[in-house]
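Reopening this one. Same input as before:
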Amino acid sequence: MKTPEDLKYTREDVWVILEAEIATIGITDYAQDQLSDVVFVEILVSAGKMLESERLIARVESVKTASDVASPISGTVTEVNDQVIESPELLNTDPYGQAWLLKVKIESATVLKDLMDAKAYQIYRSEQ
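Same output, byte for byte:
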């Protein structure tokens, strides 16, 4: 399981990286592995919309199951990744790169305080 050190993670297998005041959100390598072959991605929010923490932001479907993705943070959506909608298989091949879901402008980095670092996430996943 790949777990980049520069990301923050949730127990629901969502990752976040903060660059300046823009947070990028995606699903983890573990999540895509559990889903298996991703065939459909629907992003449920649009650019310019205010996003609340725990709000449903995406639905991901694979050949064996479907999964809802909730946002771990609040802020204003600045960008939606149309590329992952058009090519959902990117989630299986590049979950931490081309397959990000949203970019969100946050007011403060404190929104990340409740998220796990890579080591804590690896420990959490190993205990499940």
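So the earlier flakiness isn't reproducible anymore. For the record, The chain has one domain: 8-108.
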